[in-house]
Amino acid sequence: MEERDQAFEAKRNADSVKAGVSRKEEYKAAADLFKAGDQQYAIQNPEAAYNNYKTAKEQFNALYQDVSKKRAAAQKKLDEAKKAVEESAELAAEADEKAPILDTEEIEGIEEAGAVLLEEDTYEAPEAAEIEIPAAIDDNGNAVEVEKKVEPAPVAEEE
Predict the structure, then answer these.
(1) Percent of residues in the chain assigned helix, strand, coil, to nearest 5
(2) Which of 20, 25, 52, 132 might form a disulfide with 37, Cβ 3.0–4.6 angstroms?
(3) Domain residue extents for the chain
(4) Spatial distance between the Cα atoms of 116 and 84, rounded to a whole number of angstroms
(5) How many whole angstroms separate alpha carbon 149 and alpha carbon 146?
(6) What are the strands, taking DSSP E only, across 41-158?
């Protein structure tokens, strides 16, 4: 049962880095091996149980190592990006102090402070975004109701 305990600890480590989310298939395969080990142990086949636990442990450990490494690299990139944003904000603040842009000053290519650049869009009701356009209008531009023609259903051709 020592191999099972080690496999379970390896699973806990893999769970700690969310390997079941980022590497679903490999995680499920390792978990299936672990469960198969439990089944073999239950039917008094310790050698098969040991082999399943051992393989599951190796797979969980590999997942833990790989996901941990990738998470650390991603965190490093995030930290670098945060630092770059902070530096950019500092430079912008410094530039505002040295040469502030006044609200009354017009600059080519920059809209007014209160300018609405995009229409506000709520994605809650897509049908609300539809614009009503009449099917027909009269000579004065007023909407005219159009009679709907009932078209006969197409007849299927025989082969």
Answers:
(1) 60, 5, 40
(2) 52
(3) 1-98
(4) 29
(5) 9
(6) 136-137, 143-144
The predicted model scores a pTM of 0.55
Q: Would you call 29 exposed, middle or buried from its count of C-beta atoms within 10 A (0-12, 13-18, 19+)?
A: middle
> What does each of the 159 residues of the chain score in pLDDT, given as a tens digit?
799 999 999 999 999 988 888 889 999 999 999 999 999 999 999 999 999 999 999 999 999 999 999 999 999 999 999 999 999 988 888 888 888 776 656 667 666 666 777 777 655 655 554 556 666 667 667 777 877 665 665 665 555
Residue 136 phi/psi, 5° resolution? -150, 155
